[in-house]
Write the structure tokens for this entry.
Amino acid sequence: TDISTHILDQRMRSPVYNASGVMCRETTELEAVRHSDAGALVSKSCTLEARDGNPEPRYAATPFGSINSMGLPNHGYRYYLDYAAHYDYTDKPLFISISGLSLADNLHMLDAFQRLKRPLLPEVNLSCPNVPGKPQLGYSFDDMATALTAIHAAMDIPFGVKLPPYFDISHFEMAAEIFNRFERLKFLTCINSIGNGLVVDTDSETVLIKPKNGLGGIGGDYVLPTALANVNTFYRLCPDKQIIGCGGIGAGEQVFQHILCGASAVQVGTRLWEEGAGLFTRLNQELVAIMQRKGYQCLADFRGKLCTL
Ligand code: RRO
């Protein structure tokens, strides 16, 4: 059974890797993903300068997922630039997540990464929900179009975007129309956490995390149907883009469902945080078991072949 896939021309031995933000802030963590059975790795979203992020507690797990308001803690883009400069690209694909606090910051960082002339894959984060005072760009269609126009003009190499979840058909259509203007925008990662949820502890009558009165991005089981809807809808509306699925993956079954909805690869956040890098071995095995039961030999046998009624 062959579970290999490609993003652009880059082969992945498995479709599964980490979601940006989990196990990727430190080079030791990036190396742990590299040495695992993940098919690729993506770095923590970076900014021009290093950030400590929001006050703690800023992450909490629940029986059905997680809530976080990390606030973009990272070492600053030069740290990840150095990692990318020394990375062995024959091993597995390296995605670099970029989350500048302004368009100028994003252009500066993207220019630095593309000047390395290495086959890294930039994933521009248009959907961080957790920096007070900074709205999610993916929800401001005019601003997103302006940003992508400038980024596209500046980029010689293919790149992707990390999107927030959309919930209304009109918003899917408006977003897809924008993405389809840009040829070198080659992949869409769907979805970031569902922003600004609130988890309440009944006993103590308190919120679980400190920033933003307890509001934070929701991940895990809660978000699977929203993630699958975003993967499948953009798969239909953006036939020239590749879709990377993210959201609600805890077992091989959800990997299978994301791929059935059109994903070429999938990322795992919450479950990876809880379980560690051994997760990738398990998910690969569980995906293979499902494919064998169904008689599928490779991912192309079922990718995007979701049936409707
Ligand atoms: O660091 C964060 O708080 C964070 C980011 Br940048 C993001 O894109 N998504 C998220 O759930 N948390």
Q: What stands out?
A: The mean pLDDT is 98. Residues 21, 45, 68-72, 99, 125, 127-128, 130, 192-193, 217 surround RRO (CB under 6 Å). The longest strand covers residues 185-190.
